[in-house]
Design brief:
Layout (H helix, E strand, L loop, with lengths): L4 H19 L5 E5 L2 E6 L6 H17 L8 H8 L5 E2 L2 H16 L9 H7 L11 H7 L8 E4 L4 E4 L12 H15 L4 E6 L2 E6 L7 E5 L12 E5 L2 E7 L4 E4 L2 E4 L14 E8 L2 H14 L1 H15 L3 E7 L3 E4 L6 E4 L5 E2 L1
Parallel strand pairs: 15-17
Antiparallel strand pairs: 1-2, 2-6, 3-5, 4-5, 6-7, 7-10, 8-9, 9-16, 10-13, 11-12, 13-14, 14-15
Helix pairs in contact: 2-7, 4-8, 7-8, 8-9
The structure holds adenosine monophosphate (AMP) and magnesium ion.
């Protein structure tokens, strides 16, 4: 039998077009989630299908970690866990286990039960509020990670005081970046940039095995594109917590979003920002918040214990209000400070 190829031509063309559109390179993608812009660039291996998978996972986690979506695990914890056990999914449980470990290692400097104070100050909203001492005094007893009870066998959560609420703002983006990196690994992506609002993960190898150049913002000019310093790193997460990220001003004073679980006020110390570099982005995220609360000396003193406990290397950059930049001991990466009136220790 002779096959007339001409009669198959339209079908072949369709098949060709279909396979081209499902495998061809797609543009980097971004969307609003986790209270920020989430941006992913998979370079020339990025197809619509892989971006779809990544952003579906980001959307799923955005829901699970949301405080006000009625179907979310965190909503259920905040509304019911002080009366009864609340059963949660793997994602929320894993984040909580890490959060609790870091809370214990930092003597509660990092504490996800900070939510009542976050809601009181409302820094991240259009209607922030300078809290009064009596309002803070009323809520402070609710902030204590020791009153969060986790049961790993059944993945359940109890909050031991009525009125307690949890907030994952200091750790969620780190977890999500790790999850996106896992999808990149599954698809054997060679290189990717995952940027979840300053929570950056440079994944894989840059062209010709070169290192990645990542900028760390100048806290005095966070919105200009020239960073304060540039570091050259292999595959790593680079996460920064800074007093310039979310804040409001009243009178002469700036009130920012990182709060002291001990006194309930925005942290005032020598630091303008802290950057943690690690292969574990969730750890880096929680540590930037914890180290910002603790200040430089206490953070440096705690580093060996945390490294031992997590069996994970990490490196820290402290940027101080007095225009000095300092690094944790044996900082292994090359860096360059791009502003003349700043010095490094
Ligand atoms: P980050 O930008 O990673 O430092 O996270 C700051 C966010 O974490 C805030 O917007 C709050 O939602 C939450 N947060 C503030 N203070 C603390 C704290 N001491 N421990 C844990 N989370 C905090
Ligand atoms: Mg953080």
């Amino acid at each position: 039998m002779k096959i007339d190829l001409k009669s198959f031509a339209p079908l072949l063309l369709l098949l060709l077009l279909f396979s081209f559109s499902s495998c061809s390179k797609a543009d980097p993608r971004f969307e609003q989630a986790l209270g920020t812009i989430c941006y992913v660039d998979l370079y020339n291996q990025g197809t619509e299908a892989i971006y779809d998978e990544i952003f579906a996972r980001i959307d799923q986690l955005n829901t699970e970690f949301s405080l006000n979506k009625a179907e979310s695990d965190l909503f259920n914890i905040n509304h019911f866990a002080s009366h009864e056990k609340v059963f949660v999914g793997n994602d929320v449980f894993k984040v909580l286990e890490t959060a609790q470990k870091i809370a214990a290692l930092t003597d509660g400097a990092f504490d996800v039960s900070i939510e009542p104070l976050v809601s009181l100050w409302h820094v991240n909203s259009p209607s922030p509020h300078v809290a009064s001492q009596s309002e803070i005094d009323d809520l402070l007893p609710l902030v204590d990670y020791k009153n969060i009870e986790l049961n790993p066998e059944e993945k359940s959560v109890r909050l031991l005081k009525p009125g307690m609420q949890l907030d994952f703002g200091g750790i969620a983006k780190g977890y999500v970046a790790d999850e996106v990196a896992k999808i990149c690994k599954k698809h054997k992506i060679r290189r990717a940039v995952i940027d979840l609002g300053g929570n950056v993960y440079v994944y894989g190898k840059k062209a010709k095995n070169a290192l990645w150049n990542v900028g760390v913002k100048n806290p005095e000019f966070p919105d200009v594109s020239a960073p304060l310093l540039k570091i050259s790193i292999p595959q790593m997460a680079v996460v920064t917590s800074g007093m310039y990220e979310r804040f409001f001003e009243e009178g002469e004073k700036r009130y920012h979003h990182i709060l002291s679980p001990k006194d309930g006020y925005p942290i005032e110390n020598e630091l303008a920002s802290v950057t943690v570099i690690s292969e574990n982005s969730m750890l880096a995220d929680a540590l930037t918040t914890a180290f910002f609360v603790l200040g430089k000396q206490a953070s440096l003193a705690l580093m060996p214990r945390i490294e031992q406990n997590f069996r994970e290397d990490f490196y820290v950059i402290f940027i101080e209000k007095n225009r000095t930049v300092s690094f944790s001991p044996n900082f292994p990466f090359e860096y360059k400070i791009l502003y003349e009136n700043w010095s490094s220790l």
